[in-house]
Structures are given as C-alpha cells and as structure tokens.
Amino acid sequence: MTTHADRIRRPFALADAVSLLTRTPATLDALLRDLPDDWIAANEGGDTWSPFDVIGHLIHGERTDWMPRARIILEHGEARTFDTFDRLAQFSDSEGRTLASLLDEFATLRRQSLRELEMLHLSGTDLDRRGRHPAFGVVTLRQLLATWVAHDLDHVMQISRVLARQYSEEVGPWRAYLRIIGGTQG
Amino acid sequence: MTTHADRIRRPFALADAVSLLTRTPATLDALLRDLPDDWIAANEGGDTWSPFDVIGHLIHGERTDWMPRARIILEHGEARTFDTFDRLAQFSDSEGRTLASLLDEFATLRRQSLRELEMLHLSGTDLDRRGRHPAFGVVTLRQLLATWVAHDLDHVMQISRVLARQYSEEVGPWRAYLRIIGGTQG
C-alpha cells in the first residue's frame, strides 16, 4: 500500500532505473521525429540549447559519461578520477547531421549501454562502490546511475519547455495559467 | 535560413500545432506505460499530481476543454462564455482505472479531437474568431489552439520533473548539476 509520504522519494532500484533509461529514446523519438526544422532548431535565446543540441548531448553522454564512468568505478575505484565531461561536444559532433540520424544513434547507443549494464550483474555491494568525480570528489556507482536517470528526465523536461515557449505570445492571456511559459515550477 | 532571433518564438501555424498535438499520446505512452506502480503514483508532495493524475486531466481536457471550446467559439462567438474547466475531475473519473486504460483512452480521444479539428478546415480568418473565457474575457481561437499545444508540453514537463525528483537524494552531489531537482529552470 502506497502511503502519502511514500510518494515523493523512491529508493534507488536497478530494475526501475533500467526501466526508465530504456524508455528515453522512444519518448524523444515520439516527441521530435519529423517535427518541422524550425521547431527542432528552436531554443530559449542566447547559447541555450535546441532539441537538436540536446540529442547530440545525450549521444555524447552515452559515449563518454555514463557507462564509461561506471567501468572506471568498477575497475579503478577512487584511484582514477573520471575524465571531465564535455558539455559542448555536440556543437561540433552534430554538425551536418539530421535529427533522424541523431535519434537513431542515440537509440542504438542506449541499447548497447543497457546491455553492458545488464552484463555487469551488479549487486547491492557493487552499487556502493566508490569513484572520484573531478568536481565533487567521492561518489558512488548508485549515485552515478540515479543521476543518469534524472539527467534523461531533465532533458525531456528541457525539450518540452523549449518547444512550449515558442508559443509564449501566441497563447495570449492563457500565459497566466501555463507554468511552462511563466517560468515558475509547480 | 533560420537566424538567431528566429529561434525563440514561432508564429502559430495550424499544421505545426497539429503535428505537436498528434505526438503527445505516443510520447506519454513511451514515458509511462508499464512503469512500476509506485512511479506512476509518485508526486511532489501535498496535493500535487502524479503521472496517473495528469493523464486523467488530459482526458478530461479532450472531453470538455479544447474542441468543445473551439466549437463554442465557432458557433456562438463571444456571446457564450466557455464552461468552467474542472481541474480536479480526474480524481473521481480515474478512480479504479489502470494507467494503461487511461493512456489508451487519451490516444483515442486525441485522434478524434484532431479529426474533428481537421474537418473544420479552419482559415486564417477563422483563427481570429473570438470567444469568451470565464476568467480572461475575450480570447481568439488561435490562442485557444496555441494553448492546447503548450498545455500538452507543460504536462510532459511536469511528469518528467515528478519522476526525476523521486531520485533527489539518490543522486548525491550531482544534485548541484541537475536543474530538474534543484528546482531552477535553465
């Protein structure tokens, strides 16, 4: 029975994390594939990111962040600091690509990452193993995997917000009811 | 050619709106179907909404808000104020339902709504037609349809946030990098 207080935090569970991570490529595919180009390139001004930029960022994360860092923890523990993650890599890597090819690549890489994760057969003790983050210092494998999940959802949220805000003026007085446009989180 | 300033606002275009509205059921299906029950019932505390609550709210919107209000505008103009929308209807309507059946119902209703919208063959002049909102007063059909799009995306954002925040503690020091958990919008 789920009680009220149970509903705002979940303890980390590997099966839940895999279930959430598995669905991100299909979610983003449904949200973005074949949208008109000007929506794919939309952003929030300045050097904020477009949906196109975000998919490139997620690809770079599969290649250099999540499973590579998990392997560093399991092979080297705290002795080897993670490589710094390049938050801007997608601006060169995605150049000349289509959104469709980025979505396909992200889906393929995510499948590979999760297959690799599964093959590690991680135990509760493994999840407690520690690594060293370049800024934060000691972190656990459990924290890394929980962050992978939250990071996916952060970018689903960001893309939804970028798209919705394109209609900030067009919604007229309804702007007052739409938190996504008003900029406050409920 | 998309220039920098073009990227933060899009003028309303019916074909774009239909493209965005079409994809919401599949996006939410990919994000939520078959997630463990405790994630579906997760919320942000107090009387905030869970993913389950949000899908019920979107169903109620299809039944009583978007196309019904569009029809009121086209048939009665400003002469007939819209019925007030019940923001809490899903708490009784969804009782005893499964998430899967709510997702199916939302997809069916959305398809019907968009078929109805298409059959109206709306012109630019039609989009300028005015109706009367119970709180805002005069609004246009264009504003109503733009709001429908932004409202979908608002709830995709909300669901992503509710899910991510379940791991607020589990992410450890990464909390500092995750805007979805820290509560500020980028």
Descriptive notes:
Two copies of one chain form a homodimer. Chain A is mainly α. Helix content of chain A is 57%, strand content 4%. Chain A has helices at residues 14-32, 37-40, 51-64, 66-76, 90-93, 99-119, 124-127, 141-165, 179-182; strands at residues 130-133, 137-140. Chain A has a two-stranded antiparallel ribbon with strand order 1-2. In chain A, helix 3 (51-64) runs parallel beside helix 4 and helix 4 packs antiparallel against helix 8. The model of chain A has no long low-confidence stretch (mean pLDDT 95). At the A-B interface, helix 1, helix 2, strand 2, helix 8 and helix 9 of A face helix 1, helix 2, strand 2, helix 8 and helix 9 of B.
| SSE order of chain A, one letter for each helix or strand | HHHHHHHEEHH
Low-confidence stretches of chain A: none
Read across the widest sheet of chain A, the strand sequence of neighbours is 1-2
| Structural class computed from helices and strand pairing of chain A | mainly alpha
Q: In DSSP terms, counting alpha (H) and pi (I) runs of 4 or more, how many helices of chain A?
A: 9
Give the percentage of residues in beta strands of chain A: under 5%
Helical percentage of chain A = 55-70%
Number of strands of chain A: 2
Using a beta-carbon cutoff below 8 angstroms, give the protein chain pair with the largest interface and the number of residues from each chain: A-B, 70 and 70 residues
How far apart the termini of chain A lie comes to 26 Å
Radius of gyration of chain A: 18 Å
Shape of chain A: globular
Characterize the quaternary organization of these chains. Answer: homodimer
Instruction: Profile the largest sheet of chain A.
Output: 2 strands, antiparallel
Mean pLDDT of chain A: 95
